[in-house]
Structure formats: structure tokens, C-alpha cells
Amino acid sequence: MSLSQLDRIIQGGNELFLQAGIKSVTMDDIAKHLGMSKKTIYHYFNDKNELVIALVKKKLDEDECQMKLIIQSSVNVIEEMINMMKCSEEIFSRINPVVIHDMQKYHPEAWGEFQKFKSDVLIKTLEELLTKGMEQGFIRPDLDVKILAKMRVQQVEMGFNHTIFPVAHFSTWKVQYQLLEHFNYGVCTLKGHQLLDQHKNSINN
Looking at residue 126, which CATH number applies to its domain? Predict the structure, then answer.
């Protein structure tokens, strides 16, 4: 029962944050959204900041599990890259860029969890993917995987920067898709390009 309530609170906070950003949502709003007393929420979280940290940790754990599943189920690096694109579409299409801004500005501990995830999980996974792709002949052997992995992660963050890509003029997912596709084709050999094109054509058809 307790775990169920805890999950409900985290999910309820997530739903409202994605709609309106973190700053504008209060604990009262979350309680009303869930049909739950504010006292129940405060039983689990001392304040909104604690809720945001718990939510970020939960989402990052889910993302890591999803990435591992994609890697395990893919035949080669190109299939991994295509499947990561599909996974990214689902994630990026529902993220409100205001959430990223609010987390960075008002919730430094939660933002720190995201930064730790970047360095410990995302960059490491990308380095391994690129190295494996070189061995398979799909990724250019002249690349420095450490530089490219860091660059790719920074691209993702840049795509959410609304001073560079204002939400009034740019679709968040379209920005992220263009950056990701540019990266994929930039790191691939001719053999990798051919396989990327085959996968893209099969998806489009």
C-alpha cells in the first residue's frame, strides 16, 4: 500500500511538471490532482524539492533499464542506434523544456543527479557503443570515442535550451531528432550509412 501511494505521488508530480514546468506546480496542486490529502504527500516528502529528486532518480533508473534492454536485444550497433532513436522519440516528445530549465535553476540536487547520470551512464554507454561499432566496421575508426560521446551528450542538453531553440518556433523532438541523425551519419562509415538507410526505409515504409 505504501509503495503504491509513493508511486502515485511521484507519477502525479511527473504529470503536472510535464504540463506546466516544476516551478509553477505546488504541493496543493499535486494533492488535488491525485485526490489525496497534502498531509499524505508530506508523509513521504518534506517538500517539493525532495519529490523532484525522487522523480528524477526514478526516471533515470527507468531510462537506464530501457537502454540496457535496447543494447541486449539489438543485432548490431546500427540497430542499437535506430532503436535508441525510437526510444528517444518517446522520451523527448513528452518532455517540456521548461522542466529542464526549472530543474537546473531551482532544484540543483535533482540537476546533479542528471549530471551524474550523464557522466556515469550516458557517456560510458556511448563510448562502448562507438568502440563496438568500430570493431563491427560501422563506425569510423579515426574517431576519438571519449570526445564524441561527451559531444553527443552536450548536444542533447543544448536541444533543450530554449534560448537557442525557443519552443514557440521549434519542436523539441524535431530538434533532438535532427541532432541525433546528424551525429549518427557523422560517426558512421559507408557500410554504416548503408545499413542506417535500410533501417530508415523499412521504418518509413
Answer: 1.10.357.10
